[in-house]
Amino acid sequence: MNMLNPIPEGPRGTRQESGALQGSGLLQSEDEWKARNDELAGTLNELIRRHHVVSTGKALDVGCMRGELTDRYGEGLELRWWGIDPDIPESGVTVKGAQLSPGYGHELAFRAGSFDCVTFANVYEHVPPNLRSDTIAEIYRVLTPGGILVGQLPNPYFPIESHSRLPFLGVLPRPLQRWYWRLTPTGWDFEKAHFFSVTINDLKRRATASGFEVVTISNFNYSPRAVPKAVRRLAMVHARLGIMPWSWQFVFRKPCRRIPHW
Questions:
Q1: For position 73, what pLDDT does the model report?
Q2: Helix axes 132-142 and 200-210, enclosed angle (nearest 10)
Q3: What's the pLDDT tens digit per position in 199-225?
Q4: Mean pLDDT, rounded, for 12-24
Q5: 45, 59 in Cβ contact below 8 A?
Q6: Is the dihedral of CA 198, 204, 208, 213 positive or negative?
Q7: Across residues 147-176, what is the average pLDDT?
Q8: At residue 106, what are phi and psi to the nearest 5 degrees?
Q9: HEC readout, the chain
Q10: What is the C-alpha to C-alpha distance for residues 91 and 109, in angstroms, rounded to an integer?
Q11: Pick from 11, 55, 114, 256: CA 20 to 30 A from residue 231's CA?
Q12: 179, pLDDT greater than 50
């Protein structure tokens, strides 16, 4: 019998962003946030579908929040899901049965080789620099040989920084970011957001140092329907130019064991 509590349904989005969906200025509306989640879940689901190989039949979502997207990453795939997030107050289950627990990426409470797939979407930028290598190494440990790490990382140098909705926040040194953050319309607290400017090159370097092979890294931009109306036309022009992506999506693979040739 499952003794876990159901995860209560909450507003769409992260805990901090749930009060920021006002649909004015650079703040997304509920419909625009739904479009964002649809596109994020759909593209990561496609990456998993294309690259995962069934071994354990299990997957883990690191930074799962309440599990709304966890349930969607695996739609149509034969995977049982777990999730961890430090903001979850207690263990519970999602509507589709994913088992969620409080936890951090740098100390995963799972055996080595437990999962075929780990998702890591819009989380790496919240990991403190001193814990990044440990987090990637832990993800590598819990993946089975041939398992994949799939996720997304926002570009901190995108003209409108995605967490604060402030122009060019990501290019500032951290002490100035803390000061500038006071102007954010989102309502996020700077310390609670734990935002750090970090790029895909840092993630790639730490992933390969842990033993991962790069399967794919690609630029990603949301469609205009996920962008606030106030800047939608600019977003359409930006998409046509094909420069400075909003984020990167990636797949890394833990190499299969190789039998030595004598």
A1: 96
A2: 50
A3: 999 999 999 999 999 999 999 998 888
A4: 45
A5: no
A6: positive
A7: 92
A8: -85, 0
A9: CCCCEECCCCCCCCCCHHHCCCCCCCCCCHHHHHHHHHHHHHHHHHHHHHHCCCCCCEEEEECCCCCHHHHHHCCCCCCEEEEECCCCCCCEECCCCCEEECCCCCCCCCCCCCEEEEEEECCHHHCCHHHHHHHHHHHHHHEEEEEEEEEEEECCCCCECCCCCCECHHHCCHHHHHHHHHHCCCCCCHHHHCCCCCCHHHHHHHHHHHCCEEEEEEEECCCHHHCCHHHHHHHHHHHHHCCCCCEEEEEEECCCCCCCCC
A10: 13
A11: 11
A12: yes
Residue with tokens 């994949």, as numbered in its chain: 148
Could you identify the residue written with the tokens 């046509």? 240
Q: Tokens 């329907």 belong to which residue? A: 225
Which token pair is 187? 């309502």
